[in-house]
Design brief:
By secondary structure, the protein is of the alpha/beta class.
Length: about 450
């Protein structure tokens, strides 16, 4: 599912809504006269002129001073009118400058888009750099977003696979490599611009990035990028035959790298993405805010969340399929926010939570199905927070909690089902998780190993 895009500013947001000059001056002059008359009347009342008139005539000098003061107020009002006119002129000049900048931007935009449609890879490459430069120099965020949308749309065009290196297809192969270079250049430029601090020149942080359905088959460098707002979508994307790395990321993917990236807000979607080759690494990533979704994603290669930090926001692997390869959460820390594996299917390969720390937040593994392969929580520490395995089904493979420490928080196996395979809690420390003994039965079936202190017969 593609996330909803944020509504953009209407094109006429910067249009001026000013009164005509004659009307503005007339109203300003009338207001000045009324203010002057009010001041004169106030001064007369203040000096109690009516009472003075009952005993003596109003002094000519005093009357003259009042008239001068009144005209001084009128002069001040006139200055105010001049200020209003100057402000109006400034606004008109700004609007004219913006219209001129927009016109020039539109001309350059049309030329850059024409280059993207060229049959020459070199010309297309020039169009890519031209659009990136236009996004940097855009007069407003709406025009910047339009340039980014065009670059993303180019990546979403039908992807033509490599015809191979056979001599009969040598020309097609070279052409494929040339156009592939154009695609990879767009990905590189996007990464470069998302690394720049928000609000600085050439920064695209906070803009929407729609890479729905794209095929990423080579280098993609998002190291140090920051995704702190807007909507970023890799929904339905295919990561094939590449190494995808989020090393040292703070979630905040040749080599596809989000090393040092920050995902701290907004919406990031990998829904229905396919990680079918190479290595996908979120090592030392920090998921600290916003919504990050891997719902219905398919992991059939190696994926690493080793050392990742889940400290806020929501990260969802709902209905994800782990069918092959290895998925690592080794030494990951779950200290806040919500992480969900609801209805996930682990049908093969290996999933490791070895030495992971569950010290806060909530982790849902409800209704997950463990039907093959190996799932390991060896030496994991459950010290706080909540981890739910409710209604999970363990019907095959090996699940290990050897050496795990249960020192606090809540770990629940209520209504979980153990029908086959191996389940081991050898060397586990602390109290038995909630609902575990009821779920496995007493005595435990063959293949289920529990510490003797957890068994009812223990002294």
């Amino acid at each position: 599912m593609t996330p909803n895009r944020r509504p953009r500013s209407a094109p006429n947001d910067r249009e001026l809504r000013l009164w005509k000059v004659g009307r503005a001056l007339t109203l300003a002059f009338a207001a000045a006269v009324l203010v002057a008359g009010g001041v004169f009347y106030f001064l007369v009342v203040l000096l109690d002129v009516q009472e003075i008139g009952a005993t003596a005539k109003l002094d000519a000098k005093t009357l003259f001073d009042l008239v001068k003061l009144s005209f001084g107020v009128v002069a001040g009002a006139g200055a105010l009118v001049a200020l209003v006119v100057a402000y109006r002129r400034q606004r008109v000049d700004e609007a004219g400058a913006h219209r001129e900048a927009t016109r020039l931007h539109t001309e350059r935009f049309s030329q850059a888009v024409d280059k993207l449609g060229s049959d020459s890879p070199a010309v297309r490459l020039g169009g890519v750099h031209a659009l990136a430069g236009l996004a940097d120099d855009a007069p407003d965020n709406s025009l910047r977003q339009t340039c980014i949308d065009v670059l993303c749309a180019y990546l979403q065009l039908p992807f033509t696979p490599d015809p191979g290196t056979d001599p009969a297809h040598q020309e097609e192969h070279h052409r494929y490599l040339a156009f592939r270079k154009v695609r990879h250049t767009i990905l590189r430029l996007i990464g470069d611009h998302y690394r720049r601090p928000k609000g600085t020149h050439r920064s695209w942080q906070g803009c929407d990035l729609d890479l729905t359905g794209v095929t990423i088959d080579g280098d993609m460098d998002f190291r140090g990028a920051t995704f702190c707002g807007g909507t970023v979508s890799f929904s339905g994307a295919t990561f094939s035959g590449s190494i995808v790395s989020f090393d040292d990321a703070r979630f905040s993917g040749g080599t596809v790298s989000f090393s040092g990236a920050t995902f701290s807000g907004g919406i990031v979607s990998f829904d229905d993405a396919r990680f079918s080759g190479g290595t996908v690494s979120f090592r030392h990533a920090t998921f600290s805010g916003g919504d990050v979704s891997f719902d219905e994603a398919v992991f059939s290669g190696d994926v690493s969340f080793g050392g990742a930090m889940f400290s806020g926001g929501t990260v969802s692997f709902g209905d994800a399929t782990f069918s092959d390869g290895t998925v690592y959460f080794r030494s990951a820390t779950f200290s806040g926010g919500t992480v969900s594996f609801r209805h996930a299917m682990l049908s093969g390969g290996e999933v490791y939570f070895r030495s992971a720390t569950f010290s806060g937040g909530t982790v849902y593994i409800d209704d997950a199905m463990f039907s093959g392969g190996e799932v390991s929580f060896r030496s994991a520490t459950f010290s706080s927070g909540t981890v739910y395995f409710r209604n999970a089904t363990f019907s095959g493979g090996t699940v290990s909690f050897r050496g795990a420490t249960f020192s606090g928080g809540t770990v629940s196996f209520r209504s979980a089902t153990f029908s086959s395979g191996d389940l081991s809690f050898d060397g586990a420390i602390g109290s038995a998780p909630q609902g575990l003994l009821a779920a496995v039965g007493t005595p435990p079936p063959s293949g289920v190993t529990l510490p003797s202190a957890w068994l009812p017969s223990a002294p």
